[in-house]
Amino acid sequence: MIAILKHGTTQAQTEHLIAWLRNMDLDVHMSQGQEVTILGLVGDTSRVDMELLGSLDIVDSVKRVSEPFKQANRKFHPCDTVVEAGGARIGGGHFGVIAGPCSVESEEQIIEVATAVKAAGATILRGGAFKPRTSPYAFQGMKDKGIELLMKAKKATGLPVITEIMNIRALDLFEDVDIIQVGARNMQNYDLLQELGKTNKPIMLKRGLANTLQELLMSAEYIMSEGNENVILCERGIRSFETYTRNTLDLSAVPVLHELTHLPVVVDPSHGTGKAKLVPPMAAAAVAAGADGIMIEVHNNPSCALCDGAQSLTPAQFSDLSLTIQKIREAVR
Ligand code: PEP
Ligand code: MN
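Above: inputs. Below: predicted complex with phosphoenolpyruvate.
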């Protein structure tokens, strides 16, 4: 349920109303825009007498929110959320360019790629340390050593870093990580989401391989309901009957999510297509569709990459893509 307050309501009146609502065992979330203040009520709102609430002097209107996602809902929070991470911003007109290798492989590799993507305009460095691989015999990532190397690359370039967490037991290792990624395979690992909700770290939540947008938003809700509102959503392709591409990149997710939620939406065309040659056109399409950022896998030597070489751009290809993206952003602004 949301209560829209009248223009001119004082802070004291608002606080008084919030206290009254909290007394009914409701969680109250305030969204203060320039024009309107909205109180979002979460909990058993059946106890709220909508007519009484709506008749108060300071209340303009009261509406039920039918969707099961509340805090992620744009009705609760009409303005775009801007997530800040280590100096980078994503959302509300701030565009995030996340680039780097699928996996951290060595100090030379991550420093070389980090330096190259920064020079080409990346705002955030990616690099997997804990890798969720389909085969237990495939390279599983450098784990804690990988995070150490990412930190060296962060120090060398000044870029904030994003890396994936697979198990909450590893959380201590993520202290200096700027954005924690929850991968597609863990999108519905509710224990993990709730634990991450207790931190104040920005979380990038990737859409599951076979999950609906509503399920993605419900997973975001698991993080937000524990108090962490710094959530970025990522469309990375879903399973379909098509086998030419690794996944089917659902770009309609971008305008749909922008309608349903205030959270920023990033698109990952690397996992979305699985083929390097398809990454630039789909990244361009994502920007044209209104994405708040893109995530691109870049490797200094894709043919020798330990993971996802086929979908990785070279630094030179990424640099060309970065220019294209700038032009498209200017055109659609
Ligand atoms: C990744 O970004 O490193 C990754 C494993 O992606 P996804 O979870 O989307 O498969
Ligand atoms: Mn990858």
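The first helix runs from residue 11 to 22.
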